[in-house]
Amino acid sequence: MVKNIAVMASGGGSNFENLAVKSDFLNMKIKVLIIDSPEIYAAERAERLKIPCRIVNRQDFKSKREFEAGIMSALADFEIDYIVLAGFMRILSADFINCYENKIINLHPSLLPAFKGKNGIEDAFNYGVKVTGVTVHFVDAGIDTGKIIDQTAVIIEDGDTLATLEEKIHQTEYELYPAALKKVFDGRV
Ligand code: GAR
Question: Residue 40: which of 82, 75, 77, 90 has the closest Cα?
């Protein structure tokens, strides 16, 4: 059965577009892109891909609770099987997560449990580790702590700069995220 997906993003949206392009292979349909601020590039990608985009602007809400109610109300217009986070840079509350238990999936640019948080690539680079990577995991109430679905290691070589590492991480994400989602949709995790 085709899985209906909501993608949530806060930035450029390259992973969103990569998933959209691979939708048929994944037997999924992205019903909506939800973004948390206006004028981010992901919205332009959605327009080009003819995927509905809803802006739930964090600045329009007094509290996180109301903001999340806004997300839920946007989601309620669609029949969604999974929420796929693709560069969504906000921490969701336990209340929100409990409403979608094991239905929210996140992409994180490090080999968890190392380098949790907002700057996974830079933190790994600055620490000087020689191996970092990409993780796809279910979202639980902790920060980047949910059950791991899949991971790929990325070697940091002597000549690498932050920019070359970012590029390697993104290329790895474009392979890993679709493969990990396929595992979930096929019931292999
Ligand atoms: C990706 O590298 C993703 O792993 C990261 O944001 C980037 C989004 O890129 N997510 C996190 O750091 C979540 N903590 P994109 O907007 O081009 O897809």
Answer: 90
